[in-house]
Amino acid sequence: MAFEYNTVFKRGTRLILELKSQEIYEGTYVDGGKNRIVLNDVIQHNNNNKLGDLYEFYRNEIAEIRMLKLPATKIAEPPKKNDNKEKCKLIKICEEDYFRLKETCRSYIFIENADKRYFEAMKVLNDAETIGVVSLGMEKNRYGSFIRLLVLCTWKQVYIIDLINVEKRELYPEIKQLFESEYICKVIHKSSGIVDILYRHYNVYMQNIFDTQIVDLSIQKKQSGSCPPVERNLSECLMHYLNLPQSIIQHALEVPNKKWNERPINDKLKLYGSQLAVYLIVLKDYLQKLLLKDVFELTTKIQDCVYNSDDFEFSNYVSKNEVPKKIQKLVESSNTSNST
């Protein structure tokens, strides 16, 4: 029996609707019933124009409904049982970060030459701890492939660097230095292509790589006991781990490779290129927490233990090197003791 939307959502809740047509809409819940849902301040994905004060969607056109996660406000608050799990999926990015990512997508900086904007971009990227990296327009073979369009991003800014007019086996020295840095983490989905081409054609040995596709394979192997026969693309990883709509970057992934080599590049393609990079860092952060899940859980338990300690226990804990018995028991009972 179909649930009624007004029994699940409260007025003012920000919702993300993925339609069966793969279109994505965002809006604030106003009203709903058995077969319709009404949103206010509706914005279409890839389009920043509001569609009207009130916009109706019908059950037969909706594929998925998602809510944004709110920031944590309480210490050691136990997770609530999600009774509406089958009715609405919770995106594992807080509302503030979700809209920041969308704004970052749209505010990309397109760079065609090694001008003032290029050097400003290199300074920002070299000051970053982690950057996302996407190469577009490369051929699917080893010896005829060169980097034509490079998308680099930090947590707050996307840079699209056009390299089509650079000599085939040349790369700006600042980019070479960036890629070879041991201290800046490069987040890439399926890095094998760009890493090999950089090494063979540009004499660049990329270091400190976090490959989200390889990490996904490793997590699946750990969970199931065997390596999956088919790898997930970036869109599938974003859906599986962060509960983002699968179609959120699907149009970008479906762009034919030759399109990235056509000039001039239109604004829609620039936006698509930006989308392929902007979610990499947030995905890396989530995957990293999964890899260190036992450590994070132990840290939370110990911190909760400190929160709940009395003044005398707290004073002893922060002033002495001895590990309190309560914390010893937490460490000994944790999964971290068996993970090395």
UniProtKB/TrEMBL annotation:
An annotated GO cellular component of this protein is: PET complex
A GO molecular function term, named singly, is: nucleic acid binding
Matching entries from SMART domains are given as:
35EXOc (SM00474)
Question: Which Gene Ontology biological process is one annotated for this entry?
Answer: piRNA processing
Q: Name one Pfam family in it.
A: DNA_pol_A_exo1
Q: Gene3D superfamilies, from UniProt? A: Ribonuclease H-like superfamily/Ribonuclease H
Alphabetical list of InterPro entries matching this protein: 3'-5'_exonuclease_dom (IPR002562), piRNA_biogenesis_EXD1 (IPR052144), RNaseH-like_sf (IPR012337), RNaseH_sf (IPR036397)
User: Ranges for the 3'-5' exonuclease domain?
Assistant: 106-292
- Listed name of the protein: PiRNA biogenesis protein EXD1-like
Q: Which organism is the protein's source? A: Sitophilus oryzae
Gene symbol of the encoding locus: LOC115878116
